[in-house]
Fold this protein.
Amino acid sequence: MLFPVFLLSLAALAAPVDYGSQVAPLLRAKCYGCHGAAQQLSGLRLDQKQAAFQGGYSGPSIIAGKAGESSLIARVIGIKGLIAMPPGSKELPPEEIAILKAWIDEGAVWPEPAAAAVVQQRRKSAHWAFQPIARHSGSVDAFVHARLAKEKIQPAAEADPLTLLRRVHLDLTGLPPTPEEIRAFLADRRPHAYEAVVDRLLSSPHFGERWARPWLDRARYADSDGYEKDWVRPYAWRYRQWVIDALNQDMAFGRFTVEQLAGDLLPGATAAQRVPTGFLRMTLTNREGGVDNNQFKFENTVDRVNTMGATWLGLTVGCTQCHDHKFDPISQRDYYQLFAFFDHVEESDIDAPMPGEMAPYLAKKDEYTAKREALLKEYKVAEQQTVWEKEMLRAGEKPGERTDWDLAWDCLLKLTESGDGEKIMRIPPGRRTPRERDVLVDHFIRNYHFAVGPKAYAETRFKELDEKLKKLKEEYPQLTQAMTVAQEQSPKPSYLRVRGDYRSPGIEVQPQAPSVLPALNASNPTRLDLARWIVARENPLTSRVTVNWIWSELFGRGIVRSLDDFGTRADKPSHPELLDYLAAQFMDNGWSMKKLIREVVVSSTYRQSSKARPELLERDPDNSLLGRQQRLRLPAELVRDAALTAGGLISLDVGGRSIRPPQPDGVMELGYGNRWGNAWPVSKGSDQYRRGLYIHFQRSTPYPMLVNFDAPKANVAQCRRDRSNTPLQALNLLNDPVFQEAAAGLAKQATAASDDFNARLEHAFLLALNRPPSSTEKLKFESWFAKQKESDAWAALASVLLNLDEFLTRE
């Protein structure tokens, strides 16, 4: 496809005119105009001789000195069995072919490079999302009611107190109100009783848990690598912990952003500031033998760019990996300028102790180290490892010389915990950190057989040593680790990839913001500069995208329906002034998420009843005008949380490691990675009943209940969850041991409350549905109960309550 461009440009080049003043502009118009800036594809520039030859067009093959001997002219005319180029209707006219012949005969002089310099211009777009945020005075209700009045629609009445209480509890903490909280609210006659509940919930440690879950969807959080082996990531949870804590502390969203994208680049960055860069580590990791590591480094960088674009900018920048965006004013060059910010990220695991870990670790550290060193000495590890390292480095320098050592080298790149085996290997032994030393030693002991074969490996008794080292480590306190990133010390240039192929580098690119957005004004900008630019006031997208996401969590849909796409193909905002009002307020209030959420949930718009009204069904079936609240099926994790809460089983410990509750037999066997140690050891005691947020998420074999209720696969950023209604969900609620146990727990609490049937029923309703039963419901359940003969009739009744649509729904 480039050859026609080449010919058209050379035809212009051959014209006998002053190159500096006339040909260069014409040349740029022809060359770059033919392919939407063909320069972006491979760096081919036909207005510069050196660039043309570097693009793969060697001088002798193009210009022989005489037109009659030129392979170029043979191509143009279509002689010697060649197809005339450009093909079809694009064929050059005779006068342009004559110009080419004359130019070659005269010496084929190219213009000087300086005369043809191409300067990237900032783009302009009339699209609303790229315009500065307008400041409007008003309130949530003022904007919504004005729109309703324009459509001659009355807002709905306020929801009844118990419905409103349950709604705000589920929206702010993800947990239903307890009977005690219900009674206290009903008894509070103060005019601002509801606002007091809101403030209490915003201060709850469970606020961070509730709002961490949709953010983790965007971060594509999981507890395993993905791909074939799908290895467990034992410390992925450390990033989740940071998110929960940051939200509970109401960390300013600007800082929340900067630390996740570039915490490692902050001056004097501490471990606490590096932990949030776990966001960039949530990419998938392919440890399959034989895969090209350069490819998957490229794929990981692509994922980081795409995730950043969707999460903060609300743009489908991933569409420009291979070509200019078909709809939005984003070029392929824009994409790879963003790519350049992440092109030099390297993965790094660090110590990130939790509170209370350091003292016991330090108290036992020397004793543990002494025992470990004694074991290594007993099995003569150091002597053998020295030889192994020498041969490994040789294998890395001379691939193909010895296939057994090639395999060992490949495993070094893939099987070390954070994939940094090669980096550690190249550090002189005396300069390795204790962690780096331990990582390499453990890898050597566990994987030496790849180099020397099973027989020689058996003679080392390293398998026995490996088990002893694991057991020793379990006996002594260890520090929690965190998956983080760091910047490469010696970065190489970054290049556009022709057609998105990692094997086809094109022009060199420098880090820069997309040309349709305000420029990132920094010399030699870094990832830290990018992070700060993302939350700069001049950036019209981030604040809009973020408040739209928060709004969608509280109303079931955003002011802009497409949460991850604010481009030209996105839905228009239903209330554009409201969106900009909230975006400006968000920034003016120090990027406080809690202040933003509070303003929304105390509004009368949020407090409306969700009951459908006939006059709205035809005029506003999607409720985009907000003439009422929206009924929402609870997210997967909250369905389980609500059942465990109703059953009196839930453990409300905040934070910590992932847990593995019971799941159906055979699930883990569906994943190939099970043979690599990804079994499902069921958590003990109260850990089984921790919130759904903490369930270990294995990418290849995710927890079935979460999948049934539309939890995302965690392979890419998910800005909005689907809400489906399937028979499998009903079967899950009826037959899953977790829900059966919850029903039994609910029955036990009900029967313990009183000997009276109606009192028991009221208590069960209060626990499950957070309201008393109606008189009709009492009669129906009393009639049904009288017909039951089995001893577990109350458990069956409790199961009915936990399977009601009302139980699964936030009204």
In short: The two ends are 57 Å apart (CA to CA).
